[in-house]
């Protein structure tokens, strides 16, 4: 018995041992499957053409370490099987490998914010445990595999937003555990599947920003747990289904930017938990149902651009005390404005916009009790009458006030000028009277003011010159008189000035030429006199200039032909004499030129401008000739086209011989001087540099020794016109040597240009020139060496990381350098090629702008705009370069803005994720301000976020800081340079 017992025990042990061995073998087999799947994914996702340094997994995912330790990979605690793949913002550029479907234990895939392209593999539908699938913000295209919607019983959340997915959604949706579906901003077509209602666990549906058609399915009303529903920016039609009222847990509803018709259903009053309702830009009719005011938790109500009618209840503010945004613009709403007074109950109200309606009544003093948080108060284009209430001064945080196009009377209360945070004020098209108070100078933050089309009189107060931030000033169509104050011309940031149809008199002062940024000037229909300033030719940003219907006399300055960007030029109905300037045909962008009703004479110039004008544009002049297509008489063959007279001709008869004798003498003297100078030049060294004579010139053999005969080991970089080497002089001084390739056409001239310029510039944030080396076969610049190389190398390095503070300091340094080049140097210097590789960093990480001389330097004086065929590279180049070729400082501002966005996102503007439909600016703008943290460089989040976690509001501080930087970048990169 003992023997049998022992044998049984041994057999049992053998069985257990065999099972264990089989399990170990199976585990080993499964591990190898996971490993092979991950390696296949690595190959596919890093094959997009980007540098290896841009892909962390290319360096980290190696067989030298267990795959469970790889970055972004998480394994189960019980066994070495992959359960999560998180590669959010890893700069992946290839495709998604179908081998991911072999990771049978995978429960979460997050590939958000990469540059993955191609289609979504159908094989992903075979992952039995997958709960989270996040592929948003990539370049994926093609259809969504049907298997994802009807074969993944474990799926809880799917996010495919911000891609290029097309075709229609599958009609059959079988996802029993799904809670969130997000496919916003793609190219989906077809109808919204009614089968979505079978997913009873849904909490959020986000299908906005597509091309979906048809109606909103009434079956969606069965989703009793739904909290968020976004179907905006599609092409949906018909009426809003009444079943929406069944979604009593709904907090966010967006149906805006569709083609919805019908009325707002009464049943929407059942949505007592609704916080945001977006219905703007549809064709909704009828009145706002009374039941809707039951939504007492509402914070945002947007129903603008519809056909709504009827009054708004006076108790609105009491019904919705948490309102922050109220937008009812562009409807046909009517009745009184008592509901605005009730909004004093909404202590968080930030935006109030009820413009373009038919509201009547007055603005009582009670409006001064509105929220102190109110920033935007827009009630323009209604039928508001009587006076502007003085108590509006209580709205001390107001940024934008627009009461224009109403029936307001009386004067502007002096208290209104005390809103010193106000940036925009529109009071035009009313019946306001009185004078402009000198207190206007207290509004130092004002950027735009318009009080046009009223009945103001008196003069513009001198204090207007205190509004240093002013960009747009419109005082047109009033009864203002006297002279235009000189202080107005000191507002150098002014972009638009409209003073037409007043009673201004006097001369245009020379100070007018200070408005270098101005793009629009309208002074027509006043009583201005004197000559038109030749200095106006320096206003090279101007596109619209109207000086008509005044009393200007004298000749039209030739310098006006330098207004290369002008599109509209009207000098009609004055007393101008002489000939039409020969420079006018240079105005290639002019679509409207009017010189009629003056006293011009002589030949009408030929050229593009005058081939497009009509006779009406030149009629009313006394002695114009030429231009047979306009039926003007031909010019006499012996006609002198200047305003000469017979007296002047007789004078020339006696003066000309004397002048000729003097000229002959001067020519002989000049030849003698030239011969003497050339003889002296031959005696001097042929190796004398063309510039920087006050520097010690370094000989060629010294540079060769310093750079080890220009060894490739010392090569720092190369470009189209030369190479840069690192070197060390005999005294130990480290230098950078820029050697020109003299085989390149124009290289020698570029060297001379850079010498002349770099020799004159001196600034902490510009690379300093130490010396030159120049002979007939060799030309080089010797520059100070920057040990931390370029910003580009730091930004895209895998071994070094810039903190947010370092990035901010670098861009501050760059801005100071640019300010010097644009505004502090005696000549305006335009860089034309700002990019991270041209920003060099010294040992203290102080930034220095480099490479603003070789073949890219543009000098702009006060009278001309330079054009160039070499103005930076794609991505950093301002859009206007492609249209006009004109070089201005605004192009550098655009490049600076792109660099700001690049520093925050660590995305190059030429990244493969960008295409004709999407560039870096658009990508950032789409995320700003709501999802800024999703586009931020992960290195910032890893360093600065960790440091801020110890503070309770650290994340919010970081978000606000990043948002403010992005805001500056977006402003700098506006499509229109003005």
Automatic annotation (TrEMBL):
Cleavable signal peptide: 1-26
InterPro entries: Kinase-like_dom_sf, Leu-rich_rpt, Leu-rich_rpt_typical-subtyp, LRR_dom_sf, LRR_N_plant-typ, Prot_kinase_dom, Ser/Thr_kinase_AS
Reactions listed under catalytic activity: L-seryl-[protein] + ATP = O-phospho-L-seryl-[protein] + ADP + H(+); L-threonyl-[protein] + ATP = O-phospho-L-threonyl-[protein] + ADP + H(+)
Enzyme class per UniProt: transferase
SMART domains in UniProt: LRR_TYP, S_TKc
Main location: membrane
Domain Protein kinase: 710-978
A Pfam family recorded for this sequence: LRRNT_2
GO cellular component: plasma membrane
Keyword line: ATP-binding, Cell membrane, Glycoprotein, Kinase, Leucine-rich repeat, Membrane, Nucleotide-binding, Phosphoprotein, Receptor, Repeat, Serine/threonine-protein kinase, Signal, Transferase, Transmembrane, Transmembrane helix
Presence of keyword Transmembrane helix: yes
Membrane-crossing residue ranges in chain numbering: 654-676
PANTHER family xrefs: PROTEIN KINASE DOMAIN-CONTAINING PROTEIN (PTHR45974:SF29), RECEPTOR-LIKE PROTEIN 55 (PTHR45974)
Name of the protein: non-specific serine/threonine protein kinase
Organism: Iris pallida
Organism taxonomic ancestry: Eukaryota, Viridiplantae, Streptophyta, Embryophyta, Tracheophyta
């Amino acid at each position: 018995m003992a023997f049998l017992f022992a044998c049984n025990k041994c057999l049992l042990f053998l069985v257990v041992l065999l099972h264990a061995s089989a399990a170990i073998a199976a585990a080993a087999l499964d591990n190898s499957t996971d490993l092979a799947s991950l390696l296949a994914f690595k190959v596919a996702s890093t094959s997009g053409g980007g540098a290896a340094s841009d892909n962390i997994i290319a360096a980290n995912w190696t067989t030298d370490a267990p795959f469970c330790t790889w970055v972004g990979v998480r394994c189960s605690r019980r066994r070495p099987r992959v359960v999560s793949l998180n590669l959010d913002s890893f700069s992946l550029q290839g495709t998604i490998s179908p081998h991911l479907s072999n990771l049978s234990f995978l429960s979460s895939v997050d590939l958000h914010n990469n540059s993955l392209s191609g289609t979504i593999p159908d094989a992903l539908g075979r992952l039995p445990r997958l709960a989270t699938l996040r592929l948003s913000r990539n370049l994926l295209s093609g259809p969504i595999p049907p298997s994802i919607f009807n074969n993944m019983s474990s799926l809880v959340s799917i996010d495919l937003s911000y891609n290029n997915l097309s075709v229609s959604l599958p009609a059959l949706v079988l996802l029993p555990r799904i809670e969130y579906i997000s496919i916003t901003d793609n190219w989906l077509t077809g109808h919204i599947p009614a089968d979505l209602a079978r997913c009873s666990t849904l909490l959020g549906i986000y299908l906005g920003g597509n091309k979906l058609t048809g109606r909103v399915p009434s079956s969606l009303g069965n989703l009793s747990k739904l909290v968020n529903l976004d179907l905006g920016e599609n092409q949906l039609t018909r009426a809003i289904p009444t079943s929406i009222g069944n979604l009593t847990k709904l907090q966010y509803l967006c149906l805006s930017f569709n083609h919805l018709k019908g009325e707002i259903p009464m049943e929407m009053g059942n949505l007592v938990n609704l916080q945001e309702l977006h219905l703007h830009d549809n064709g909704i009719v009828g009145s706002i149902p009374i039941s809707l005011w039951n939504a007492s938790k509402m914070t945002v109500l947007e129903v603008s651009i519809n056909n709504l009618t009827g009054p708004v209840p006076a108790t609105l503010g009491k019904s919705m005390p948490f309102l922050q945004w109220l937008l009812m613009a562009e409807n046909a709403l009517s009745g009184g404005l008592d509901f605005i007074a009730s909004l004093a109950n909404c202590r968080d109200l930030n935006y109030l916009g009820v413009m373009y309606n038919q509201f009547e009544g007055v603005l009582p003093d009670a409006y001064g009790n509105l929220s102190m948080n109110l920033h935007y108060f827009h009630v323009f284009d209604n039928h508001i009458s009587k006076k502007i209430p003085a108590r509006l001064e209580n709205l001390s945080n107001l940024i934008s006030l627009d009461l224009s196009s109403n029936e307001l009377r009386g004067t502007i209360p002096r208290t209104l000028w005390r809103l010193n945070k106000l940036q925009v004020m529109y009071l035009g098209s009313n019946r306001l009277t009185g004078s402009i108070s000198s207190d206007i100078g207290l509004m130092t933050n004002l950027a735009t003011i318009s009080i046009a089309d009223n009945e103001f009189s008196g003069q513009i107060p001198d204090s207007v010159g205190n509004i240093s931030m002013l960009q747009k000033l419109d005082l047109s169509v009033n009864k203002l008189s006297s002279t235009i104050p000189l202080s107005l011309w000191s507002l150098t940031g002014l972009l638009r000035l409209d003073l037409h149809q007043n009673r201004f008199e006097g001369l245009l002062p020379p100070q007018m030429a200070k408005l270098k940024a101005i793009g629009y000037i309208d002074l027509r229909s006043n009583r201005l006199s004197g000559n038109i300033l030749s200095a106006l030719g320096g206003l090279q940003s101007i596109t619209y200039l109207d000086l008509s219907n005044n009393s200007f006399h004298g000749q039209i300055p030739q310098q006006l032909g330098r207004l290369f960007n002008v599109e509209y030029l009207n000098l009609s109905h004055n007393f101008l004499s002489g000939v039409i300037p020969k420079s006018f045909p240079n105005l290639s962008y002019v679509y409207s030129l009017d010189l009629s009703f003056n006293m011009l004479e002589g030949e009408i110039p030929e050229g593009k401008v005058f081939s497009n004008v009509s006779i009406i544009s030149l009629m009313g002049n006394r002695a114009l000739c030429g231009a047979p297509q306009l039926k003007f008489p031909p010019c006499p063959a012996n006609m002198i086209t200047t305003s000469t007279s017979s007296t002047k001709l007789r004078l020339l008869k006696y003066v000309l011989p004397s002048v000729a004798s003097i000229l002959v003498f001067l020519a002989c003297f000049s030849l003698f001087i030239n011969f003497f100078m050339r003889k002296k030049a031959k005696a001097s060294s042929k190796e004398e540099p063309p510039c920087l004579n006050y520097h010690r010139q370094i000989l060629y053999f010294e540079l060769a020794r310093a750079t080890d005969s220009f060894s490739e080991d010392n090569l720092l970089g190369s470009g189209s016109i030369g190479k840069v080497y690192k070197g060390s002089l005999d005294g130990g001084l480290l230098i950078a040597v820029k050697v020109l390739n003299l085989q390149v056409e124009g290289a020698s001239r570029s060297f001379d240009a850079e010498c002349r310029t770099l020799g004159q510039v001196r600034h902490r944030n510009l690379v300093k020139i130490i010396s030159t080396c120049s002979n007939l076969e060799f030309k080089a610049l010797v520059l100070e060496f920057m040990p931390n190389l370029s910003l580009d190398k730091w930004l895209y390095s895998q071994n070094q990381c810039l903190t947010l503070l370092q990035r901010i300091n670098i861009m501050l340094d760059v801005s100071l350098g640019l300010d010097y080049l644009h505004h502090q140097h005696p000549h305006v210097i335009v860089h034309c090629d700002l990019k991270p590789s041209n920003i060099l960093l010294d040992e203290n990480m102080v930034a220095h702008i480099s490479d603003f001389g070789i073949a890219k330097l543009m000098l702009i004086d006060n009278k001309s705009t330079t054009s160039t065929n070499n103005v930076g590279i794609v991505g950093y180049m301002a859009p206007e370069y492609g249209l006009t070729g004109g070089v201005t400082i605004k192009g550098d501002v655009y490049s600076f803005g792109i660099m700001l966005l690049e520093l925050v996102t660590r995305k190059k503007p030429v990244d493969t994720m960008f295409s004709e439909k999407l560039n870096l600016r658009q990508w950032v703008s789409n995320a700003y301000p709501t999802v800024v943290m999703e586009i931020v460089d992960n290195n910032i989040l890893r360093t600065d976020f960790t440091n801020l976690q110890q503070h309770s509001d650290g994340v919010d501080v970081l978000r606000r800081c990043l948002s403010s930087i992005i805001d500056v970048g977006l402003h700098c990169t506006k499509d229109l340079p003005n």
